[in-house]
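Quick check before the chapter quiz. The format below is the same one you will see on the exam, so make sure you can read both the input and the output lines.
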Amino acid sequence: MQDDTTETPVGHSTNLVGLPTRLLASAAWNDQPIDLHINGVREMNPQFFEMLGRAEDLEDAARALHLYMQAIFGLEPEQQERVPDKRDSVRRFRSSYLRLLKGWSYDSNAREGAVLRGWVESRFGLLPTFHKEPIMRFSSHAWMTYVEEKMSSRFHNNAIYTQLDIMYEFCQWALRRFVVAKGSRHITLYRGVNDFAEHPVVERRSKREVVVRMNNLMSFSSERDIAECFGDTILEARVPLSKVVFFNTLLPIHPLKGEGEFLVVGGDFLVTASYY
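Here is the expected output.
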């Protein structure tokens, strides 16, 4: 049975991963995914991936990422922006991918969440379906709030999208090098919800199996017990590895460490819904 609420656009006609956005957003693609790469990232950062090739473990690789991002984007604390001619007056630190992750950990619907969802929209072509409230149309208050916040100058500087591009490519490399078995295409993840306001139902396949339209960037947990803390209905999904943007053991220290959290590119997902 199809749900009439799913006729809204799922994304742009173009993206930077070389696949039709509607295909990337489909539950059918999730069943048979392929590797994804953001155009030009590996080609523009060959030294970084050469460094990764010499990493002996994930901790060593994460150290290489940290050093590379510091050098390229000036993320050391002393490299902060200052008000001209007022050397003792600090304006703000340069934006970094770690600050966005920290903001997401506090509230995924804050400005940091809007910037992250704007990056997914730009790179993968998928439009957000929720930011503070459901986004039903382009002229809505929810859409205008999202657009305003994703362009916030507080976070949207220092080539922040490029930082996220490198983080995604590093995540994809690390998953396949150190985390999952060779040849794996999926990982089983869980999300706790109280209702389907943020996850409209696209299709009901059985009493427990439904296709839901996820926001363009979502949090999942690798632990069912942790997902139960966020809602009385647990959604279990086979998530394509190529849709994983970040995972909880990727870096030794970061704000998402404690919840087994995975950040996942959205679209239509076949999930099994059950009560805890």
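If your answer matched, good. Residues 15 and 101 are 23 Å apart (CA to CA).
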